[in-house]
Write a sequence for this structure.
C-alpha cells in the first residue's frame, strides 16, 4: 500500500476498532475512467456486486474472496475511497450469470443484456492483454458486497 492508502486504512481501523490488513486493495475496472465510474456507483449504494474471472484468484499468492473480507477500494488514480465487506461469493461459469446478479452489480441500465455485453467486452480486452482465450465456459467469481465506510 502507498502511504496515503495505509493512512486511510489506519483511520478506518481506528474508527471501527479493527486490526489487520485489508484482504484486497484495488479499484474496479481496467481504466481510470471506468474505475471512477464504478466507484461512484458503489458510493451511492447502487453497485453491490462485482465479477472477475476465477483465473485471477488461482494465481500463486492469491485467494478467492470470502464473506466477511474487508477491501480497500481505490479510485482511478489509486487514491483510497472506501471500504467494502464481502457478503457472498459464488464460483460458476460466466455463462451461468443471471439477471439478479446483473441488477446487483448496478452498472449501465442494470439489465442482463447490458451486463453481459459490457462484461464480455471487458473480458475480451483482458484476454487480449493477458494472452489467454476467453470463453463463457470459464469460471468467474461472483462477489456481492456492502459499503462499510467512506470518510465524511
Amino acid at each position: 500500500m502507498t502511504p496515503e492508502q495505509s493512512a486511510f486504512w489506519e483511520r478506518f481501523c481506528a474508527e471501527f476498532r479493527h486490526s489487520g490488513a485489508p484482504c484486497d486493495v484495488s479499484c474496479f475496472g481496467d481504466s481510470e475512467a471506468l474505475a471512477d465510474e464504478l466507484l461512484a456507483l458503489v458510493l451511492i449504494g447502487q453497485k453491490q456486486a462485482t465479477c472477475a474471472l476465477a483465473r485471477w484468484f488461482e494465481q500463486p499468492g492469491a485467494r478467492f474472496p470470502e464473506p466477511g473480507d474487508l477491501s480497500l477500494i481505490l479510485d482511478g488514480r489509486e487514491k483510497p475511497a472506501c471500504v467494502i465487506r464481502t457478503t457472498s461469493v459464488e464460483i460458476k461459469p460466466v455463462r451461468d450469470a443471471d439477471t439478479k446478479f446483473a441488477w446487483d452489480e448496478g452498472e449501465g441500465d442494470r439489465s442482463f443484456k447490458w451486463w453481459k455485453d459490457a462484461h464480455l467486452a471487458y473480458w475480451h480486452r483482458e484476454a487480449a492483454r493477458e494472452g489467454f482465450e476467453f470463453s463463457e465456459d470459464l469460471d468467474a467469481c461472483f462477489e456481492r458486497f456492502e459499503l462499510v465506510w467512506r470518510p465524511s
User: Anything to note?
Assistant: The helical segments are 3-16, 32-43, 99-105, 112-130. The chain has a mean pLDDT of 96.
